[in-house]
Amino acid sequence: MRKKTTYRNPVSTSKYTGLLLISPFLIGVAAFFIYPFISSFIMSLYNYRMNITPDFIGIDNYKNILSDKAVTESFCVTLKYIFTLVPLKMIFSLCVALILNIELKYMGVFRTIYYIPSTLGSNIAIIILWRYLFTTDGLVNQVLGITGLPAVSWYGEPVPALWTIVLLRVWEFGSCMVIFLAALRDIPKEQYEAAKVDGCGKVRAFFRITLPAIKNVFIMNFIIQLITAFQEFNAPFLITGGNPLKKTYTFAMLIYDEAFAYNNFGYANALSWILFTVTFIVISIILILWNRLKKD
Amino acid sequence: MNKSKNIILKLLLINLTAFTVFSSCDKKNSITEPDGKLDKCTLRFSWWGGDDRHEATLSAIKLWNEKHPDIEIKAEYGGWDGWTQKINTQMAGDNEADVMQINYDWLISMSSDGKGFYDLNKLSDYIDFSEYDDEILSFGTRNNHLNAITVSMSGRGFFYNSDLYEELNFTYPTNWDELINLGKAFEKHDVYPIDLDIQSGGTAWYLCVVYVQQKTAKTFIDMNGNLGFDKEDFKTALDFYSELEENKVIRTIKDRIDSDGADALYQSPAFIDGKIGGVLEWGSSVGKYEAVLDENVLEAGEFLSDENGNKAGWMIKPSLMYAISADTKYPDEAAEFLNFLMSDEECAKILGTTRGIPANNKIYSYMEENDMLSGISYISTEKLNEIMPVTVSPYMDLQQIKDYCNTALENVSYGKASTSQAAEQLYTSISEYLEKIK
Question: Is A137 in contact with B109 (Cβ distance < 8 A)?
């Protein structure tokens, strides 16, 4: 029997080497994630205003949140936004991914083109340009006019105002679509060929083969979109400023105003923790339900 | 598991202790005292404004750099929208500029105990206080600390698009009735005699306050943060606003938002294209409205009176102030630069009236002698001074107060609340808030 040979690792392998190698990451996480995370919670227990020595007030900030009408209103706006955006974006991204999964010449070019909005989406300039598209005399109303449709009061009415933000975020479907596309390309083609031989139509194949094959990716994508939607700030801040009647004033905008406009940092941190807790609970419920469904 | 719990608990305790210790540290412990000499350094100077102010200030900095090559000035500037939030963020992180242009209400929100900004009394070797009236200096004093110096006194007045008024053959209004009547007359031409906003400027509520103050001789909020208006006064203010909208004197909030989104009025296509006949603006900031129209098109109007010619109720305030950061490492150099901005004649020549009419007596005389006091900013301020304006309470400028007022206006404008309901809600919100922060 051949004797087993071991080779020395060229790098010193003391028990601290691994720790040393990942230390930049650990320091980064500790300094920029764990410390602010814990500090934020502690700050939420104080009446913390700039240039005033903070007072420890226990859970008073959290008690005040319960009776704050602005919290309820902004939370409802955020929920409305989530319920409109997330399903729409998921369906749209999946549809585009299905189209881009078709094997055609130059499909790579199309995939790149369709991904471009996502690379631009977080750009402030794009959000500002988007704002001008929907003004009274903006391009969208001009196009509606050409087609004989009446102009829409996009920013003046609560529902259309929320839609301008939803449409922007749906337009930035690239990242969501790429994740779906990657999952779709992993499905063996043989499955579709066998189904076709058995007389299975395309719609049935989608529900019987495609959806079950990408279900894990689907739920992961859903959770990512949900978390992002809970934190929505940039688009409503720049496009509508929360108008009209605060019907596009999201929870993240309230946190921002409490901290930086009203100089109420303790309360803003308490609001941040409420947002975190709600997101955490919602995601946990989804995952628990998902695991039960999988077992069934 | 228990070990992990212990670690988390210890981390929390360490953090709590550290937070309590650090947050309790008094700023004054880390204040750099003046050393009586000017060292080589780089100072940061921040301000907000329109392009006219930016260009003039950058030229003034260039002049400073020629005169003081060892003290470089790094400019940080932008528009008003979002500027308070930016400075709040910097102040919270002790990362603000060495020399700052500040707003009047910041003395309350950022320096309630007088320690938020450097005490300029310590820098009297560099800043010539004798050129300021006592009242001017008192505006910047908190808890006996001179936190800021008033750059100029200014009030909001009407400025009109002369081309539009001439074209339609109308004269500028002189009283409230004339203003209301102009609405219907202008409507025939699909234009508006004036417009007001509920954005960060909040000119709509400002005009309502002037109207009620003139009518009742009450003050909205006094200098100590006491609310002077009662529920009936709030209702009168909101009724007046409704009247303006109903008579087409101003656009409805819905029309304005539809047309401009979250943009300020001076960026509005309707104003730039000459469909808005006038604006209510600070004399010190009207340059941004002038800049988007042809030269000399914007003209200063009268301060409106009641039917008896009573012009009371109009307001004035330190429109802009200069302060030095409490965290600056270069107080001597910062004070020297601040004094240059306020009292150097060459600098004054460059800056002109881009920050209003100077409160510094020496510079005022210099500009007067050299015929530099002209333009609509000057005309408006002079007219205002003639009618004995009341001083604006810094509490009126607080963002939360503005937001309460704007919400009430919005509810009335959209018909979501009657003026009585909105007035009731507004009175309660403002009373509670003032009680909380005083």
Answer: no
